[in-house]
Each structure stands twice: as C-alpha cells, then as structure tokens.
Amino acid sequence: MNLFSQMDLFSSDEILKTEFDLPGADVTLFENFFTTDESNRLYNSLLQNTVWEQDQMTIYGKQVNLPRLTAWYGDAEAAVSYSDKRSKMHAWNTDLLFIKNRIEQEVPIKFTRCLLNYYRDGKDSVDWHQDYEGEQRKNTVIGSVTFGEKRPFQLKHATRKDFKRIDIPLAHGSLLLMQGATQNNWKHKIPKTTKKINPRINLTFRWIKS
Ligand SMILES: O=C(O)CCC(=O)C(=O)O
Ligand SMILES: [Fe+2]
Prior knowledge:
The chain has helices spanning about 5-10, 35-50, 95-105, 135-140, 180-185; strands at about 15-20, 25-30, 55-60, 60-65, 70-75, 80, 85, 90, 115-120, 125-130, 140-150, 150-155, 165-170, 175-180, 185-190, 200-205.
C-alpha cells in the first residue's frame, strides 16, 4: 500500500462514532458528521445569516447579559420561553433544514425547533444545567452540532457526586446525540477559558411535545 492510499484510508473526513458508557445516560458522539467543506460553508453561512440576539437572565433580581448570543428557529411562528425572556422563533432556513435532515437520518424523530448559541471567545460559556423541565426531561432526544472552535462539553451526574465528570471535545462538524433520560440524570456545561480561541457555533435540535 502506498502512502497516498494509506492517507486516504485515514481521511480526516471519515465519520467516527463513539458511544459513552454513562449510567442513566445515552450519549453518542459522531466526529466529522459533516465534512470539512460542509462545516466551513455552514459556519460562515450561519454566522452571517442567523438573527443573533443578546438575551438576558435574572441573577439576584438583576438583569444580566447571557455570556453568548442566541437564536431560536423552528416549525411554528410561536414564541418560546427561555431564561425568563420570550425570544422570537424564526422560521427554518435552508442551512438549518439541511443540518436537521442529516441528523434525522440517525434518529427516528422529527425535530421541531433549534437553539443556536454563538460563543464569541473564551469568555462566552454556558453554566451547569439540564435541558427541559418535568416529563420532557425524562425522555427526550437532543442533537447537538458544532461548527468552529473545539470546546469541551462537560457532563456530570445530577446527584451522584461519586461519578466522575467527563469532558467530550466537540469539534468542527461533530454531532452529539443525547437521548433517553440523559437530561434527567446528568448536567452539562461549556466552561470559560482564558486561552485565546476562535468563535464557536453550537446548534441544539430539539423536539417539544405539543
Ligand atoms: O454549546 C453547547 O455545546 C451546549 C449548549 C447547551 O447546552 C444549551 O444551549 O442548552
Ligand atoms: Fe443544554
């Protein structure tokens, strides 16, 4: 085998699937779920075309900016409640439908909405939380896609302090599927870093029972 065909064999665009063995969680990572060309194109297009908002949250009675920009896209022209504020729901666009369709090849579900997060630099982050409330939290599917800077996605058990935290690096073009009771049993976070890093866009495709 010559060098060229060996390199071809380990082409950086090959999809690499990893299932994480976490108690009470169903978490699967697909590296290179999108090719480098697709990821570069989608990163630039989403950065330009998304209607980014500076949302706020209430801390000790004070309104403070979220440490990231956000946007909601989805099926309905309905408003969604997020961080004490009602954000506008925009209609799906071509890029989002392209990404949504690709994830729907992996999971038997039709996503109804997507939250986009834009982490401008290392100061932008999302703190420990679980997605959804109540019944929805107990059994759900979230498809999380990343373009741009690779950042660690940290997972820790919601109640068991003796379980080790895990850090999953989410790279350009990756897909992380969180299914079943993952949201009910585990919390997740994107920590801040003092390193000089590039921006990152994350999209979480969600499915809301109506
Ligand atoms: O940026 C990420 O990878 C996670 C975002 C997240 O957890 C959320 O928006 O609920
Ligand atoms: Fe989340």
